[in-house]
Amino acid sequence: MDDEQEVIVAICKYVYLNWISEAKSQRDFAAICDIEESTVRRIKNIALGTSKTEYNMSVKTIAKICRKKEITLEELFQNIKK
């Protein structure tokens, strides 16, 4: 796995474990964050290691999730780094 993909996996794991898994449903999380439900499923599959494909999550998607969770991108990356 290359460095870029490792970063995406780390982001997906953080988002899934801290927010998606705590949400009422994947559909609810998608609606709250203004992202597609298929994106939420993709994040979950990458986080759980059940996806057979790589995922190139956009900065726009990450920013939308962070905005709704009221943290900055910097805070997200600091949390992931811990």
Short description:
This protein is mainly α and 82 residues long. 70% of the residues lie in helices and 0% in strands.
Explain the overall architecture.
The chain has a single domain, classed as lambda repressor-like DNA-binding domains (434 Repressor (Amino-terminal Domain)). The chain has 82 residues and is an all-alpha fold. The mean pLDDT is 93. It has five helices and no strands.
Into which percent range does the helicity of residues fall?
55-70%
Assess the beta-strand content as a share of residues: under 5%
The oligomeric state is single chain
What's the N-to-C terminus distance? 21 Å
The major pleated sheet works out as: none
**What number of domains?**
1
Shape category: globular
Helix segment tally: 5
Under CATH, the topology is which?
Answer: 434 Repressor (Amino-terminal Domain)
Give the name of the CATH superfamily: lambda repressor-like DNA-binding domains
User: SS-based structural class?
Assistant: mainly alpha
> What is the CATH first-level class name?
Mainly Alpha
Low-confidence segments: none
Order of helices and strands: HHHHH
Radius of gyration: 12 Å
Q: Based on the structure given, which CATH architecture is correct?
A: Orthogonal Bundle
Overall average residue pLDDT = 93
Topology diagram in text:
Elements: H1 3-20, H2 26-33, H3 37-48, H4 59-68, H5 73-81
Helix pairs in contact: 1-3, 2-3
Notable characteristics:
82 residues; mainly alpha; 434 Repressor (Amino-terminal Domain); 5 helices; 70% helix; globular; DNA binding
